[in-house]
Specification:
Pfam family, one: YacG
Keywords: Metal-binding, Zinc
Number of strands: 2
CATH architecture: 2-Layer Sandwich
Number of helices: 4
Number of domains: 1
Helix content: 25-40%
Distance between the termini: 48 Å
Function: Inhibits all the catalytic activities of DNA gyrase by preventing its interaction with DNA. Acts by binding directly to the C-terminal domain of GyrB, which probably disrupts DNA binding by the gyrase.
Largest sheet: 2 strands, antiparallel
CATH topology: Erythroid Transcription Factor GATA-1, Chain A
Strand content: 5-15%
CATH class: Alpha Beta
InterPro entries: DNA_gyrase_inhibitor_YacG, Znf_NHR/GATA
Shape: elongated
Protein name: DNA gyrase inhibitor YacG
Bound molecules: zinc ion
Length: 73
C-alpha cells in the first residue's frame, strides 16, 4: 500500500481513492493547510492549530463550533 505523509501533521496516510482528503489525513489538516482553519479560529478566538489534538476527527471539530446562525444572532 502506497503511503504519504500528511503535509500538516506528518501522519502516515494511505494513498487510496477512499481517502478524499489525500494527501492530508483528515478534513481538518486540509483546512489548516489552506489557511481556512486559522481564519475560523481568529473569528471565534479558539485555540491555535498547533495546540489542537491531531487525532481529533472532523465530527469533533464541527461539534466544537456553534452553528453560524446561532453565533451571529
Ligand atoms: Zn494530518
Amino acid at each position: 500500500m502506497l503511503k504519504v505523509q500528511c503535509p500538516t501533521c506528518d501522519t502516515q496516510v494511505e494513498w487510496k481513492e477512499a481517502n478524499k482528503f489525500k494527501p492530508f489525513c483528515s478534513h481538518r489538516c486540509k483546512l489548516i493547510d489552506l489557511g481556512e482553519w486559522a481564519s475560523e479560529s481568529n473569528v471565534i478566538a479558539g485555540p491555535s492549530a498547533n495546540e489542537l489534538d491531531p487525532r481529533m476527527d472532523e465530527f469533533d471539530i464541527e461539534a466544537s463550533f456553534p452553528p453560524a446562525d446561532d453565533f451571529f444572532r
